[in-house]
Records
---
Amino acid sequence: MGRRLLLSCVNTRVSLIGFDLEQGKPFWYCPATVLRACGACYSEDALWIASDCIVTRLDHQGMQSVNLPGPHENYLHSIKSVGHGLLGLADTGNSRLLLFDGKRFPLSYSPLEAMKDLPLDAMHLNDFLPMEDGFLVSTFSHQPFSHWKQTSFAWQKAGLGCLFHLRHVSGRTFARVAASGLNCPHSLQSYDGAVFCCSSSEGDFLRLDRQKGLFAERTRVHVTDTHFLRGALRYEDGWLLGGSSPRHLENGGGMQLYHLHDDGRIETFQVGGPGEIYDILPWQDFLPDICDMLLQAPEKNRSAEDPPLCQLPEMYR
């Protein structure tokens, strides 16, 4: 893997950032006025972006967007290639995982499928991993919390987060709690026969080992006291992890990258000002074509505070 990365950012003035680890600084960015982003992935020499109610494919030919079905606003979070020409989409607003073939949504999985009048963003289902017999999904709450959304109810730190193992049998979703007691689980990754994830509100990175269908915590590394930890990429001898700043403004600072080495060492890279990193991807050779294409894209709702679209430097082509 090279020393260049693509960062996908949500709720941030810039949606995409090209970052050079060797130089320790960004070299390209795309403002949110051109393209809004949350989750990001690669598939078929294309960059796919999930945001709000839209999934967008970007390649050298341009941008193609598809709107998702309801009933609620989708609040799209993670997007990943799951094989067989399919993408998975964490439809957070409707508490489900949608499979997408590029045009249609042939299948969905939901832990709350049998619940009537499912509320908006009932359990904050935000990420997933394919398994040999279904999917593992991460949620913030094991019971719908929409009726309790009050500033006095600290659901973000209450340890209500769960991982669900979802299977599809005879047209129905079967859900099993595979892990519980987690605080804001994000960024599920599979490596070395285990599942890794961020405990975002605690700033911890966890390894979970599977035993008889359940996932038990094996190791926990405390990475940061100053950032909401989200975004994970296996990198060289460790992990690259994203640090989002707006949720911990009392500690100051902006977006950061953490390189957690397998020996426990942690390197820190300053990314930029206040913002939220969602996904971390390796930089791909076809991205310069996408950067050039975005230069021609129209902007929406631009204000004086928004940065202009950055042109990719020649040295990164």
---
Amino acid sequence: MVNTTELRVYMTLRDNMTVKELARKIGKSPATLSRWLDNKDMPVSSAEAIANVLHIPEAKMTKIFFATV
């Protein structure tokens, strides 16, 4: 499960990046990214791309992209 709250914190820290901007940077449609955020699930390859764009430290990636609750 993806911790969308933490993910949105990183989006805010990166110049208030919108879903549309993030989707463009990872090569996905805004609808696809929104669906992933709503479902709190996404492909691992996309999680890695998002982490790179948002400069999420490797130590935080597990807590964000593989949250247990």
